[in-house]
Design brief:
heterodimer; A: alpha+beta; 5-stranded antiparallel beta sheet; 33 helices; 29 strands; about 45% helix; about 20% strand; B: alpha/beta; 7-stranded mixed beta sheet; 5-stranded parallel beta sheet; about 50% helix; globular; disordered N terminus
């Protein structure tokens, strides 16, 4: 069978090697003479002419070129190098190109060769030069770089986005160069394995250096090459004697020792997923399995190995191949003589298309395992690169579905969708050679990100829509990236740009215009930014950017329009800090909302400023009020008075006569109270006028009472009430009596009765009954509790309303009285 | 009409509570492991309505503390502060953290700001130097579901902030609460705004809904009408003494987030008792909307019913019946018993308060003020109350009522009252009086020469000044012509909530709008109102189509509403076959309302 033709057994498992695509670069590139760096997950490839390997063109002081290609060999960019000597190229997990120079600096470029930034690995690296370098991905998802200097020290950063340089411990025997080393990143900790001759050391991140015991049986002179697997769990060591040791990176497990019979150091040593180690000598590839099985491939020119999570890519001058262990489901179906359900179904489908009745026979054989068979076919389809095979397998699955009633089609549909996406990105114009398994690992959003990096917006948006991703994660995000990219393009008129962007984006939910505007600001296109911000609906996004651009008034207006006072505050407090005070106050005074907010802020946080604001605005009334409140905050008498004097002044300016007068009186009252405190040694301050007088009456301070009464022109009516209340409370009945006779009461005598009753002195109350005016008599009787008399007097005055009132007060328990009053009422009613 | 009302249902507002609960759980879980919770005291009761202590415990809360100034707390190494986003409270938290820091205590602090994180608060944390070691997050505690038809933001400071200080921060929360209601129950097609704040909130809500991509209209709406009404359109109602049972409970004991606390004088036991007032309390549900005069008779008949229920136990013959009785009836009986005894106690307390002192005099003055008769006597009575130093709150209330019913006091009267008030209750009252003037509760009427003349004549001949309140009374028929005809037992008019003296103005306006289908009468009304009024009607044709939910209305009081208004709206709903959902920024009574605008001095 043709499909298994490229299968090779490695022990009891099969490996297959197939063409991913042919390289479009074929006439431009000679891998033999280049340093190559290819990003995993079918990422881009960077090349630079290797000075050591290539022949120098004599006489021309050549400036090297860095070329960047897609995996399919389509050129993305060329960088004309004019910096230091490049030691190593590599890709970060965000697909930035890292160029490590001899002086330990790492220049970072994007996928289109646009310079982004430089990080360095420290002064020492710069001084003594770097001789080797590794770029690695950590288990926490960052990309790091480690360099070996000519003094045989290792410096490392584990995250190039937040570079923090660490020097690792020194290895004993400083004069001997390390024979090989590698970075191993496992669970949060990243360490280096370093071999010196026959000794292996582990350098961890805490400056420890520990010699490792390698469980190896063969004698070892020197380890000259090592390779760590994609998941950092496995390790291969190559000895100068030609022995290859394969085991776990913790050195605790050993899988095999294999004699390659080749003492030459391999040009490359790499893992194929986690199942085999591949060494590359010139034009020979040797794959060694964990059980000493091996396969040899020969090439006619140099190749470059790229380890992947599920296999290994082999890049050649004209071809691009994938080497992997044949996935189980594929093996089940295609293996010669396979009797698995999937294989049967696949056969059945083929027979069916051929119109043969054998189809039925096959189906009958797997009748009760059809569902499983289907899944096998679907899975296998995923692992196939060729759409023809994909289709055949999927057709088989769908054929199987005809025989099942309640089979869920989710898996089938999802696989079809994902394959369609995969085939699209594998297209030679896109050149992302991703396997199904790799996509599962990366996830679709990351794939979209990579498409965005390559500026393949059209494809990205179609994938988002095809997979029905929510707009916010999908289409809108793509559009926003597109717009950001658009903004950065020079040579287009800003006006036109703004229109183009607004047209395309419209009101798409989830598009953040402010993000795009921010990009525009970064490019110095302020007008464009403002135009874009005009489309931003969320004021909370808009305002901070406007502030950033110094459009203060606009920011303030937008904040106020949003109705979100918190935003207004943000603007105000920001402006307050940045502007000279006078200017700041001028800019807010025309905006009432801002003004009142700022006043409110000052009221709580900045009283002096509050007073100043009121003063400036000629708002003397508010100034006065503020000063009153302030006067109560103070302890010292004189300060309080002086604050009130200022209050009086403010009220005066406000032409508020009444308040001025009251303040003036208050000052007088306080002075009087102060005097009383000094004389009597009792607290008076903070009592009202009424309370002060009341207290003086209670204390029988005639002189004081009289003075206040005169000074504050207390009307008789108030004074009398005050006095009888005070006297009754102290129980000074004689004085009350005397007072009642001092002159005719301006408030009548009912209050006298009332206060007596209130203090439960009914006898005393009786005294005043005679002087109560007739119209109040009934009520006084009621207050005294003499309902019968009350009723009679009401009858006398023929007042039905009063009589009803008495009746309402009569408790139902007193039946006799109740009836009596009712008769009275009837009498009145009759008349 | 009965046929229609059967179909109409209020949306299930418990969903709002549910989503708040879920949010709280998420916020609590975002801090892993055990943690202490420090609560702003004003959030305690509202939070109680959202989640009980057991829910907090389930989600890793170790201990609950109350946030108090200058008090050091012990506790474990993780702590969540749940506080309202006010500068004062944030400062308090910052002080506490700083104090612990200087003592060398290191904790993991999270501050949850209610209802949202504000820049000002972050600024304070930054200024106090604790910004670096706290996590700041927000907890959008919007509507507290007080009952199946009452939602409240429980944000009593809203009135003061917006109407007095011009601070619109609160509008955001109101708008967001409306967004969340419409997210759950679909966009409300007809919106009526009464007042400045209402309009602002409506605009903000629309903006927020379109920003977050909500539908702006839907044929499946569950609420047909939304009324947004500003408190400052009607000051009269919150100034009146309440006479319905629920209103009186609030006036007498104070109801906080649906909880009332009865002292020993009510419980008759050694300890006070907390009672949750909702429609689940079947006795309370029966009496809450009644005029007080009609409450005790129900309670006594209920007492007899309960007795009969208890007596059933004598008639039990078999063990099974007995079991059944204990399992079902007894528990319900016990519950009702407890509730009944508390309500009876509360009634006694209220009656006592009413018969005591000059309650009846005050009520008479109040009614006179509403009707605009006997002004001279009213003046004298208020003056006498001040002279006699009777409760300042009462004096202030009547003064304000005097002012708002008359459209302001003449300069002379205003000044003399101001002077009297300040001299009696202290100079610091200047500030309170000024605040009242600012919001329009107690104002000096600015009069032209001619009007001043008229004013003088009016003062002499004892008639009220012409003012918007009077014309509104006439136009809306707020004051029944013959209060005797109002049946307090089986209410036949909305004014029963004020003993037949007055119908709450806003409720009357809502009635007008709901029942009149021609724009003309609204136009007419708009002329009378001194505040802006606007309509945003999207479902005009839908009314004919009779989506039965057009009979569901939501009324949102901006700046608080009283229980009397809630009762009036319930009455309106029942009378006209509507279902009305009442929302408010907070529940107020005359005391809390005036306290809110008065100025406390150190």
């Amino acid at each position: 069978m043709a499909l298994t033709a490229d299968w090779n057994p490695l022990g009891d498992v099969f490996f297959r090697k197939f063409d991913l695509c042919s390289m479009q670069w074929s006439d431009q590139v000679d891998l033999q003479k280049s340093i190559v760096a290819a990003a995993p997950f079918g990422g881009p490839i960077a090349l630079i002419r290797d000075e050591a390997r290539g022949q120098k063109i004599s006489g021309v002081a050549s400036k090297p070129l860095i070329q960047i290609f897609t995996s399919a060999g389509k050129e993305l960019a060329v960088i004309r190098w004019n910096s230091g000597t490049i030691l190593k190229l590599g890709w970060s997990n965000k697909l930035d190109l890292l160029c490590v120079q001899e002086d330990g600096s790492v220049l970072i470029y994007n996928i289109f060769g646009v310079y982004k930034r430089t990080i360095t690995l420290g002064q020492e690296a710069r001084d003594v030069r770097v001789i080797q370098c590794h770029i690695f991905n950590t288990s926490s998802g960052t990309t790091g770089a480690a360099v070996l200097t000519s003094s045989y020290r290792i410096f490392m950063v584990t995250n190039i986005d937040e570079p923090r340089i660490r020097r690792l411990a020194e290895v004993p025997g400083a004069e001997i160069p390390p024979s090989c080393w590698s970075v191993v990143s496992l669970q949060q900790s990243t360490h280096v394995l370093l071999a010196k001759e026959a000794k292996l050391y582990l350098l961890d991140h805490e400056l420890h250096c520990e010699e490792q015991e390698v469980p190896i049986n063969s004698p070892v002179d020197s380890y000259i090459e090592m390779a760590v697997s994609f998941n950092n769990k496995y390790l291969a060591l190559f000895c100068s004697s030609g022995i290859l040791w394969i085991g776990s990176s913790s050195l605790k497990e050993i899988y095999c020792e294999f004699d390659t019979k080749c003492q030459k150091r391999p040009q490359q040593l790499a893992w194929c997923s986690t199942v085999a180690v591949v060494g590359c000598w010139e034009d020979i590839l040797l794959m060694i399995g964990p059980k000493k099985d091996w396969i040899k491939y020969t090439y006619d020119s140099a190749v470059h190995l790229v380890p992947e999570i599920d296999g290994m890519r082999i890049i050649g001058n004209s071809s691009h191949e994938f080497l992997q262990r044949v996935p189980a489901c594929v093996e089940e179906i295609y293996k010669i003589g396979s009797m698995s359900e999937g294989a049967m179904l696949f056969e059945a489908s083929k027979e069916f298309q051929r119109g043969s009745q054998k189809a039925d026979e096959y189906i009958r054989m797997i009748r009760d395992k059809l569902s499983h068979a289907m899944n096998q076919c679907i899975s296998a389809a995923g692992h196939e690169f060729d759409p023809v095979n994909q289709k055949a397998l999927l057709r088989a699955a769908s054929f199987g579905k005809c025989f099942l009633e309640d089979q869920k089609s989710d898996f089938f549909v999802r696989m079809c969708q994902e394959l369609r996406v995969l085939n699209a990105v594998r297209n030679k114009n896109v050149g992302i050679l991703l396997t199904y398994q790799q996509l599962q690992h990366l996830q679709v959003p990351v794939l979209i990100d990579r498409l965005l990096l390559q500026k393949l917006y059209w494809l990205a948006i179609h994938i988002c829509q095809y997979l029905k991703m929510p707009d916010i994660e999908g289409a809108s995000r793509v559009l926003a990236h597109w717009a950001c990219d658009k903004v950065q393009q020079s040579g287009i008129e800003e006006e036109q740009l703004a229109r183009a962007i607004a047209e395309k984006l419209g009101d798409t939910p989830g598009v953040s215009y402010s993000e795009i505007a921010n990009k525009a600001i970064e490019c110095g296109k302020v007008d464009l930014a403002i135009r874009l911000l005009g489309c931003e609906l969320k004021a909370a996004e808009q305002v901070p950017l406007l502030l950033k651009m110094g459009r203060n008034q606009l920011a303030l207006t937008k904040a106020i329009e949003s109705g979100d006072t918190d935003l207004v505050y943000t603007v105000l407090l920001n402006l307050q800090e940045r502007m000279p005070r006078g200017e700041f106050l001028m800019s807010i005074r025309t905006v009432p909302v801002a003004c009142s907010l700022y006043l409110q802020f000052c009221r709580e946080h900045n009283r002096p400023m509050l007073l100043e604001l009121y003063y400036q605005e000629d708002n003397f009334q508010e100034e006065g009020n503020t000063r009153i409140a302030d006067s109560y905050e103070d302890e010292r008498f004189e300060t309080r008075v002086s604050k009130l004097v200022a209050t009086q002044d403010a009220f005066n300016k406000a032409k508020n006569e009444c308040a001025t007068k009251l303040t003036e009186e208050q000052i007088r009252l306080m002075r009087f109270q102060r005097k009383m405190e000094e004389e009597t040694n009792k607290p008076f301050l903070d009592l009202s006028l009424h309370e002060t007088m009341y207290k003086l009456i209670v204390e029988n301070n005639q002189k004081g009472v009289e003075q206040l009464r005169k000074d504050f022109k207390v009307p008789d009516r108030r004074f009398w009430w005050m006095k009888i209340l005070a006297l009754s409370e102290t129980g000074d009945w004689n004085e009350l009596d005397r007072f009642s006779k001092s002159k005719k009461s301006p408030i009548g005598y009912e209050p006298f009765v009332e206060v007596c009753v209130k203090n439960r002195n009914f006898e005393e109350a009786q005294k005043y009954m005679g002087r109560v005016t007739p119209e109040n008599l009934v009520r006084c009787y009621v207050k005294l509790g003499k309902l019968e008399q009350a009723a009679e007097s009401a009858l006398q005055s023929k007042n039905a309303e009063d009589l009803n009132f008495v009746l309402s007060k009569c408790p139902p328990s007193n039946r006799a009285l109740f009836e009596k009053i009712q008769t009275m009422r009837n009498q009145l009613g009759a008349k | 009409m009965a046929g229609i009302s059967e179909k109409v249902n209020l949306p299930d507002v418990q969903e709002l509570r549910h989503s708040t609960r879920m949010q709280l759980i998420n916020k609590l879980r975002s801090v892993t492991g055990l943690k202490d919770l420090v609560l702003d005291s004003e959030l305690m009761k509202p939070l109680d309505r959202v989640a009980g202590a057991s829910l907090l415990k389930e989600n890793g809360v170790n201990k609950i503390f109350k946030l108090e100034p200058s008090k050091s707390l012990t506790g474990i190494d993780k702590r969540i502060y749940l506080i309202r986003a006010t500068p004062f409270l944030v400062k308090m938290v910052a002080d506490q953290i700083n104090a612990e820091h200087t003592e060398g205590i290191r904790r993991n602090y999270t501050i949850l700001l209610v209802p949202r994180r504000l820049h000002v608060c972050e600024l304070i944390l930054e200024r106090e130097g604790v910004y670096g070691y706290v996590n700041i997050d927000e907890f959008s505690l919007d509507f507290i579901v007080l009952d199946k038809d009452v939602l409240s933001l429980e944000s009593p400071s809203f009135f003061r902030s917006f109407f007095m200080e011009g601070d619109q921060t609160g509008c955001h929360q109101v708008a967001r609460s409306l967004v969340s209601v419409q997210e759950l129950f679909h966009a409300i097609p007809n919106v009526y705004c009464l007042g400045r704040c209402a309009q602002m909130v409506h605009n903000l809500t629309t903006l927020m809904m379109s920003n977050s991509g909500c539908e702006l209209s839907s044929p499946n709406y569950e609420i047909g009408h939304l009324f947004l009404v500003d408190r400052d359109c009607d000051f009269v109602t919150p100034l009146c003494s309440q006479v319905t049972y629920e209103g009186l409970l609030d006036d007498t004991f104070g109801i906080a987030s649906g909880f009332v606390e009865f002292g020993q004088d009510v419980t008759g036991k050694d300890q006070s008792s907390k009672l949750l007032l909702t429609s689940h309390d079947i006795i309370f549900e029966e009496i809450r909307n009644r005029h007080f005069s009609n409450v005790s008779c129900y309670l006594s008949s209920k007492a007899k019913d309960l007795q009969i229920g208890y007596d059933k136990r004598h008639g039990l013959s078999s063990v099974n019946e007995m079991k059944d009785f204990v399992a079902n009836d007894l528990k319900a009986l016990k519950q009702q018993h407890r509730s009944l005894s508390l309500h009876v106690g509360a009634c006694e307390k209220i009656s006592k308060g009413k018969s005591e002192g000059d309650f009846s005099d005050i009520l008479r003055t109040e009614h006179c003020l509403l009707e605009g008769i006997d002004m001279k006597a009213c003046h004298n009575h208020i003056e006498e109350m001040i002279i006699r130093q009777q409760s300042m709150a009462q004096c202030l209330r009547l003064l304000c009522l005097l002012s708002v019913t008359q459209g302001g006091l003449t300069t002379d009267i205003y000044k003399s009252f101001k002077r009297l008030f300040v001299q009696s209750f202290g100079f610091e009252q200047m500030l309170t009086l000024y605040n009242l003037k600012r919001v329009g509760l107690l104002v000096e009427a600015e009069k032209t020469q001619a009007a001043r003349q008229l004013g003088k004549v009016a003062a002499v001949v004892n008639i009220p000044l012409p003012c918007p309140f009077r014309s509104l009374c006439k136009r809306l028929n707020l004051i029944p012509k013959s209060p005797e005809d109002i049946n307090l037992k089986n209410p036949n008019d909305m004014s029963y909530v004020f003993s037949g003296a007055y119908s709450p103005m806003l409720c009357k306006i809502i009635e007008q709008v709901l029942t009149s289908y021609d724009g003309a009468s609204l136009e007419d009304l708009r002329k009378l109102m001194t505040v802006p009024m606007s309509l945003d009607i999207k479902a005009k044709s839908a009314r004919e189509k009779a989506n039965h939910n057009s009979k569901v209305a939501m009324v949102y009081f901006l700046g608080g509403c009283t229980f009397s208004e809630i009762t009036a709206l319930r009455f309106l709903a029942k009378q006209r076959g509507y279902k009305i959902l009442i929302a408010t920024t907070g529940i107020i009574n005359s005391r809390t309302f005036l306290n809110g605008v008065s100025e406390p001095v150190a």
